[in-house]
Each structure stands twice: as C-alpha cells, then as structure tokens.
Amino acid sequence: EKDKWAYELPIIEQGAILLSEPNDHFCVNQQYFHKNVIFLVDHQPDFTKGVILNRPTAYRTLDLETSLKFDNFSHEGVDDWNVWCGGDCQGINSRGRIPPEYSVLHGLERLEDVSQTITKGVYAISLEDAKALVKEGKADKDDFLLLVGYCGWSAGQLQSELNRQDTWTMASVEPGLLLGQLREEQAELRRRIAKAQEGDVFTAADVGDGLMMWERLFERLGSKYQAKLEDFKAGGENDHSDEMLRRWINRCLIPTRYSPEAAEPQDVVERVLQSLKEDVVEGSVLWGSATSWLLGKPFEDERLSRLPPAQYFHKAVLLVIKNEKDDGVTPSLLALLNGPIDRRSQERQIYWAGPQGSNYIYKVVEESNFEGSFRGFTILPSGMLETFIEVGALEKSSASITEILNAEVRDRWTVAGGKVETLQDAQTAQLADKQRLKWFSRFEGIELEDLE
Predict the structure, then answer these.
(1) Contact present, 40 and 158 (Cβ < 8 Å)
(2) Residue 434 near residue 243 (C-beta atoms within 8 A)
(3) Where do the H-state alpha helices sit in 80-210?
(4) For position 65, what pLDDT does the model report?
(5) CA atoms within 13 A on the CB side of 375
(6) Which ranges of 391-445 does DSSP label H, i.e. alpha helix?
(7) How many Cα neighbours within 13 Å face the side chain of 97?
(8) Is the confidence at residue 452, as pLDDT, over 90?
(9) What angle do CA 443, 228, 185 make, to 5 degrees?
(10) Is 83 within 8 Å of 64 (Cβ atoms)?
(11) What span, in angstroms and rounded, lies between the C-alpha atoms of 278 and 186?
C-alpha cells in the first residue's frame, strides 16, 4: 500500500471520503458514526448522499428477505450474500413505512460498461445486474459490496458540520485503499460469522468493528492526523468510545437470535405480564434500569429516533406527573428526583428534573425533610412510558415519595428499588455511569463529577 495516496480535501465532491474525527463526539448518540469511513456517492446543491464502508454486519440476504424485499433471493441460483451497514437512513433497523434502501459498489474496471462510475476505480451497479453476473460466472459475489441504508445531508448541512472541525475530515483516497481488499474482507467476514454460529451468541468481535480501516486511512493523511489520533488515545476516552460502537453493533448489526442483547423469551413474557399489572398513575415513582440506557435508548425503534438520547434515565428515580394510560394522545410527564443541583440557577437547592420545561420551578408536596425545588420535566409520547416499562427500562417502585426524598440524592435509586444483579450487568452499568456524565456535560452543561 506504500504507493497508494490519501490527502485532505478542501471541498465536498462526489467520490470523496468523510472520516470521523478521533473524539467522543458520537459516544452518547449515533454511535455508528464513531471512527467512520463514509464514501460520498452523490453530491448535489440540495442533498449529499454517502454510504459507510467499514460497518460489516452479521446479516446475510436470507435474514432480510422480507424487510428488504430480497424475496426468493437465495433461490435464484445465487448464494447468500453478506450485508453491510450503509447508514442510518432507510437502514437495517428501519421500522417505518419507508422501506430500507440498498446499493451495490465494486471496484472492477472491466464491469464499467454495466455500472455507474462514482469516481475512477469505484462503481455502482444494480443488484439485479450484479446477481446476473454472478450467476453467469462473470463475477463472484465477494466482488460486490451490498450496503443497506445510507447517510444523508440536506443543503448546507454537511458543510456546517465540516466547519465545526470536530466531526469530520474530508479526504480524497486512492480507490485501492477503499475496495482493494474487498474480496478478502468479504471472505474473512463470512468465515468469522460461520465460526461464531457454532455457538449461541456472537458479538462485534466476531462481526468486526471496522476500526482498523478507519485508523489506516486517517493516519495515511499525514503527521498532523497521526498526532490527533495519538492525543485522543492518550486522553483516556478512546477505549470507552470504541466500546460504545461495539455495543451498538451488538444491538443493531447482529440478528436477534445471536445477539448478546437478546432477552430470554421467559423474561420477556414475565415483563409483559408484570407491566399489564402495573397501574402507573400520577404520583407513581419509577426507577430506571442500570443497563438499558447505555446507548441513550433501550431498543431501536422509529418512534425513538425522533427523541434525543436519554442517558439521564440511567439509574433514574422518576415521579409521574401525568400519564393518561388509555388516552392514546396525551403525552406523559415525568420529573427526575435524583438529578444534580442546577448550579446555573441563582437560587439554591434547585435540582435538575428534566430537559423540557426549564422555566418551570416547583416543589413536590409531601411530608419529607427535603426542602429543595425542581426545575423542568421530561415529555414522552403517549404510550411510550408503558413501552419502557414493558421492556424493563423503567420499573415501578414500591417506595413512597417521602421515603425517596428523605434519602440522600445519591442513595435514592437504591431506596426506590434499583439493583444490579449480575457481574455482566455491573460491567455495563459502569459504562453507563460514564455515559450519564457525558450526557449531562454535553446537553446541559452540568459537570456531574464536580457536583456529586
């Protein structure tokens, strides 16, 4: 690879590469963008479109025949193909009315006549044409990169992100550095997945996290970029950010039957039955899971994509202010009872209670010795609270509000019933503790390490 080039690019253009900056920017939210390599397949004044090149998945076309409309794909004389994650828009985890979108890239110049040239050495081809070439013996399935989903930016959005200089670096890269080892990488991915399938569960370590490709390209840009990466690694956040990406891969890029995050069927049934018994009304107290909020939401769902990340629900104690369970329209209102003191306020003893309604300061009327007030609340769409309870992300507490508020803030989660039951959960909870600190710092400007 010594003769292959890469250099920073000052303008956005089709065929360019976006490399994530080495920092923890995508640690709390959109973890899939961490140390990402995005190839821009189209750039127009009103829209820019790219696909991720370094996010393999454990899915194959057979796994996605229904959701991606690969009907009878594996029965047309073409073997099962690897599937790669191309982006968050219309991707593998899409659950909305708009179906996932897929595209196919390759680096074979001899197929240029039946392909669209994105840039010299990288081509797009229709899936039907790629399948036909494989069936006719004119190409191998491992010559093609089958990507599901894409990344999209509206007019001016990508340039704005580039101007911040903390999110992306734009680069031009010799095509051989991008797809030069595609066949070998596809075969290796298939080998890893086949070996992992010998067991009951496999993880990002089996699928691959794409970090080496990103690092290889980023360092190829020169000494300034090598120093950036070294500084990030020395700063102590590199390993944590890498792990958040791997946790996202475990959740999103591995079929449920093999995912380490998949719940046991009996546990799911028990939680659903328990949630049906719970009557969550005004005045109820809930406690947040120590593991479910690590990535900002307890599961992937189109409804949650419209909500900001919520790591502040990690080990939370929440008072239900309003919940019309059977309404179907009215949102639920919750107040955090174990949040930090909001030292941005001139008044003392005002505790942060939620990201919405920051102008509202109120007291909780009960018979405790607690003299503080609360600022703000959380608004959840109708029915979402019940869903969070159903999946175990929130649980109803048997403790009274008085018992909760009489306890020290740091002890309220335990008093409410919060618990960590296994060593594995304890390890996840420790990571989530750090995620909570990062959430308050980024979204509220509150440094919890100074307050707790």
Answers:
(1) no
(2) no
(3) 127-135, 157-164, 175-179, 182-196, 204-207
(4) 73
(5) 16
(6) 401-406, 412-416, 423-439
(7) 0
(8) no
(9) 95
(10) yes
(11) 48
Mean pLDDT calculated for residue range 39-46: 96
Here the tokens at position 297 are 């939401």
8 Å CB contact between 14 and 118: yes
User: Exposed, middle or buried: residue 452 (CB in 10 Å: 0-12, 13-18, 19+)?
Assistant: exposed
347's tokens: 């008044």
Paired strand residues for 404: none
| Structure-token pair, residue 125 | 């081809």
* Token pair 């070998």 in the structure block, residue: 184
Structure tokens at 116: 């669209």
pLDDT digits (tens, 9 = 90+) for 348-404: 789 999 999 888 888 887 777 788 899 999 999 998 999 999 999 999 999 999 999
H or E element in which residue 273 lies: helix 265-277
176-185, 188-197, 396-405: which has the highest mean pLDDT? 396-405
Q: Cα dihedral angle (83, 89, 90, 95), rounded to 10 degrees?
A: 110
Residues whose CB is less than 8 angstroms from the CB of residue 317 and which lie 6 or more positions away in sequence, other chains included: 285, 286, 287, 288, 336, 337, 338, 397, 404, 412, 413, 415, 416, 418
Q: Which residue has the higher pLDDT, 89 or 260?
A: 89
| C-beta separation of 279 from 405 below 8 A | no
**Does 316 score more than 60 pLDDT?**
yes
Rounded Cα gap, residues 81 and 248, in angstroms = 22
* Residue type (1 letter), 296: G
Nearest to 334 by CA among 386, 257, 390: 386
Check the CA dihedral 216-217-218-222 and report its sign. positive
pLDDT interval class at 215 (50, 70, 90): very high
């959380």: which residue's tokens?
A: 378
E strand or H helix at 5: none
Predicted structure pTM score? 0.92
